[in-house]
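Interim report, section 4.2 (structural modelling).
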Amino acid sequence: GENVEQHPSTLSVQEGDSAVIKCTYSDSASNYFPWYKQELGKRPQLIIDIRSNVGEKKDQRIAVTLNKTAKHFSLHITETQPEDSAVYFCAASWGNQFYFGTGTSLTVIP
Amino acid sequence: EAGVAQSPRYKIIEKRQSVAFWCNPISGHATLYWYQQILGQGPKLLIQFQNNGVVDDSQLPKDRFSAERLKGVDSTLKIQPAKLEDSAVYLCASSSTSGGPYEQFFGPGTRLTVL
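Predicted structure of the assembly:
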């Protein structure tokens, strides 16, 4: 089955700096890569996703890049703000089966 | 559109007791997932339904966990008997099967504490 690895497990950045979270996957059949933000005590919320026929996608301060050959994808948050502090999960999906990374706890220091 | 509903939101039980969780997916979503999320970890799939059939239950501890989705809509997840290590948040999610790839929507979760 699919194996998704996520790094780093914790990340602290100063407000205004950029944050990058990286994930790798093992199954070349995976074709959909969502990123979720989970605030303490709340449900995971989809923040951005990318499909295998696209190399990069951007939505305001958030961007995701995908390298199918190397089987890795990354989340980029620019101009970080304190409200970006949360746990971020990547996932790899084929069909409607999802495999999650172990999460990155991001802290944005004001 | 209404989101995924779950109840109860919190449950505290003693080990060896039984507990049941309920999930109502987004209307029209054929696929329903139950995940276990232990503090500090990512969601781990327990069982996945397509309508009322099981697609994947390979990580479901079948000696104590059971789940059903009899009419292809609501689902219940049961633990009997509970162990201390079952303390976690149980997340239900649903996704559509029209088009694809399929975006997954999560419910608020049920936080289970086993004492």
